[in-house]
Amino acid sequence: MSPKEAAEGTLGMETPAEGGRTALWASTLAFTICFAVWTIFSIIGLGMKDQLGLSETQFGLLVGTPILTGSLVRVALGVWTEQLGGRRMLALVMLTAALATLLLSWADSYSEMLLAALGVGLAGGAFAVGVAYVPKFFPPGQQGTALGIFGAGNVGAAVTKFLAPVVMVAWGWQSVAQIWAGVLAVAAVVFYLVTRDDPETLARRREGRPAQSAGAQLAALKNIQVWRFALYYFFVFGAFVALALWLPRYLIGVYGLDVKTAGMLAAFYSVPASLFRIYGGRLSDKYGARAVLYWTFGVSALCLFMLSYPPTDYTIHGVRGPISFSTSMGLIPFLVAIFVLGFFMSLGKAAVFKHIPVYYPKQIGAVGGLVGMVGGLGGFILPLVFGVMNDLTGIWTSCFALLFLIVTVSLLWMHFAVRQMEAAALREGRAITGLPELPEMEPIHEPAKPMLERLRKARAGVLADWRPEDAEFWRTTGRAVARRNLWISTFCLLLAFAVWMVWSVVVAQLPRLGFTFTTDQLFWLAALPGLSGATFRIFYAFMVPVFGGRLWTAVSTASLLIPAFGIGYAVQDPNTPYLIFLVLALLCGFGGGNFASSMANIGFFFPKAERGNALALNAGLGNLGVSLMQFLVPIVVTFSVFGALGGQAQVTDDGARIWAQNAGFIWVPFIMLGALAAWFGMNDIASAKASFADQAAIFRRTHNWLMCWLYTGTFGSFIGFSAGFPLLARLVFPEVNAMQYVFLGPLIGALSRAGTGWVSDRWGGARVTLWVFVGMIAAVLGMLWALSIASFPAFFGSVLALFFLTGVGNASTFQMIGPIMALETARLAPALSPAEQRVRADREAAAIVGFTSAVAAFGAFFIPKAYGASIDATGGPEAALWGFLAFYVTCAVLTWVAYTGPRGILREVERRRVPPPPSSQAQAEGSPS
């Protein structure tokens, strides 16, 4: 039935009806107490079992009876609520359940306890009453939030788990039943006195209309859509309850935890996941229940797929014989996956019930009762099925495989049902009157606009109107939004650089831990992240216009969890094959690719007058991730940061105990925080788009390739020396604990990049770049001299000078690109107007900035690899350093001949004899990235 056909209820309201907020909070408190009573057997059942000497089967039946009956009565209670009114019905259910709970305390035999358990189960049926009563006070746009708050009463189960054991130990299980019964009875009376009947019931009595018959209400259950909602709730609520009951046994059986620890982890899983239901209701009101369910089912399917994969041993028949390794999910990733699963399940609970008052405003009781009943049955049936599957398969993870099947069916059924409805709506156009009033269906009512464009603009976080060059808009609106996006982006980029370069420190520890890799193999591990990161940059540069900066930043940041977790597991076992380390090193390249997309995204937020500073902050502070990692990792590996959850310490060849896995695990909470901050705090700009064809012209520009060569000399050196220096210092100066100093190089390079852009603006990027390369040649000569006299201080000082110069050169080379393209555009396209030349020059300059950053990042591969090849061939790094010196000579000559010498194209511009073109100046202001 369409909501538009319902003339009564809340459809015409914009604010809650009188007494609505009181009814909501009183109902939530009442349901919390009901849920505490409903799950009382999970605690007092243990006392009953000891008193009567019950078997496991008898105990299981006793504990499960209230759950079963509380689920089965929900349809009937929902129907009666529509007829008698939710206020009366909820108070009556609470009093009846309180009486049954009180009688339970006097039960002496097993049969009497089972009979009382039937009455206690009525407390669970209160849910069906509340979901029919509460939403009638609220307009459609607030019903999801209201139902989410009411549903958070699930936390009553945790109340019982925390408080009932204390009471039972002090006074016995009978006292628990008596106290819980008394609290429930008092709550029933208070609820009835402070609340009022819902607006629909009041209107029906005032007009003398009879209540809808039970048959008319139950007729809605013939609709297949109702059973589809029931399947959704079977997963989001039934599976959630089942996992809360099953987790202690799983944690004890799989990870060997004690009962106390397993129970506490299960309780911590239940409490926050119940409270997040409120947030799920809010999201359903704001973005649409269907959108929330898509996220719920999608993320749940991903988590369950990982959880269902059993521990497995692999044997690869390699060239030199079999290569064996194992895969298994440790405790930390298991807890992360299960808590993420519980979070999205809680969002889904609220989203399912957001649908019901929208689709069935006159049958909320019957439909909500059926959906709640099926969900409750899931909490009763699934733990039994989990046990049966363990017996049949002998695989602990079979329970998650079953849930993966259920959520996949739910997702596919929902998707195809939605597509069928949308197709029908689009065929009929605006003539449709029965289409449900859900936010995500609004685009269907706008046939004049392309569907893709409307869906894009309807997404959360999209800025349809963005005018940073408008001074008033920027002052009142734009600056705050842009800065928020900048700081979140910078934090995510810092993490990306940290994960990208983490192997530079990890490889230096591997020989101490018993890994028998050769020097060349170790340098390969330090070099491969640079190779993959540079390659990823080429693709990442084009992702923001396609997916949006918000989504891509969240996804690319979350992808860092893969190498972070992988490193944490791999380093704990010296038998881990070298192949696994190679794969993890390549996956660390995810962090390197983030630079291109991050810089491309942030540039769109700021006006040209402030873009340079914004990009310098984003890049410079992001580069600090390398220094932070090289400073933090040597510290965190010396103690157990995560306790028992982080795994055991490894003993080094000199007898020390270190936790090398912390090099990966330490970033996990920050990565999760960064991904969530990007998703909930960043924005997309609807107008920020540029086709690949528009940018592909740079591949025909000679200066694009020349600047790639120069930027490889500056940024390529910065990232390459960052990756290779820790291992090089350990090998060349083994008597020095260089790990406590290596972070200083990347720190100086990052700060010099962020703080010296003004030098290039004043003296010209080409002139500064020339002197940078001259200084880098001197620094390499200093390194060679230091090696010849075996002086670590001299060597380290030369390295710090080199890092400082690379930071200055990073800014100066990028500053050159804007003026170069302004001059080249004027030469190649003289027929264009000055404004058209400016637009074309800016577009190509931005593309060259992205492409050169991708090419230069290959320095993170070539420099460590050159060190390894040099040491392997000659016994020392000198050959590699002579090669770097020759390369810097070519860079200096190229800068002089092409740009700043007598025939250089920037000579006149930089000496202020010819004023720089307007586009050159604008680009220079926005380029030090």
TrEMBL record:
It comes from the Bacteria. The chain crosses the membrane at residues 23-47, 59-77, 89-107, 113-134, 146-171, 177-195, 229-247, 259-279, 291-309, 329-352, 364-389, 395-418, 486-510, 522-544, 551-572, 578-600, 621-645, 665-685, 706-732, 738-756, 768-788, 794-817, 845-867, 879-899. One of its GO terms (cellular component) is plasma membrane. Residues 910-929 are annotated as: Disordered. GO terms for biological process: nitrate assimilation; nitrite transport. Its main location: membrane. Coiled coil: none annotated. Belongs to the major facilitator superfamily. Nitrate/nitrite porter (TC 2.A.1.8) family. PANTHER family: HIGH-AFFINITY NITRATE TRANSPORTER 2.3 (PTHR23515). This is MFS transporter, NNP family, nitrate/nitrite transporter. It comes from Brevundimonas viscosa.
